[in-house]
Amino acid sequence: MVLDTIQNAERSYSLHPGFKPAFEYLKTVNLDTIEKGRYEIDGARLFMVVDRGEGKGKDNARFEAHQRYIDIQCTISGDDLIGWKNVKECAGEGLGYNPEKDIEFFATQSTVWTPVPAGSFGIYFPEDVHAPKGATGRLFKIILKVAVDWK
To answer: 20 to 30 A from 39, CA-CA: which of 46, 47, 58, 101?
Structure first.
């Protein structure tokens, strides 16, 4: 897991070849007019999900992990709170991987809750079980989905 401000995003470019194009695309988004939904950026390698809505709170946030994509959870407005736990600590708590949606939910409790305020992002790799939208209140988030196997 990586936590930083969007202003410092280029510090993470060396971690994965898809991070630079993901953050560069984010700079082109008109945040005032973009609608909720999924947006293709670079085929199956890179896409974006725009989410506007209410946070779920710690008790209702669902723990999830992905095998094929890395999540870059960007908080645009509001203040998110994201739970985290290493996937190795979740042995036997997985509820079944859905390969079509590249998601597995977990029946676990977080070891860490990290504030991800407006203007910040968290990067969640396949080993990072995470629970986004753990805050309460209105949130505007952009999730950049970067293929693990970047070819």
So the answer is: 58
Q: What is the rounded CA–CA span in Å between residue 132 and residue 109?
A: 13
Q: Tens digits of per-residue pLDDT, 95-123?
A: 999 999 999 999 988 879 999 999 999 99
Domains and their CATH numbers in the chain: 2-147 (2.60.120.370)
Q: Which two structure tokens, joined as six digits, stand for 141? A: 């988030």
Q: Tokens at residue 70, please?
A: 């890395």
Rounded CA separation 16/35 (Å): 28
- Cα–Cα distance between 133 and 1 in angstroms, integer? 16
Tens-place pLDDT, residues 36-69:
999 999 999 999 999 999 999 999 999 999 999 9
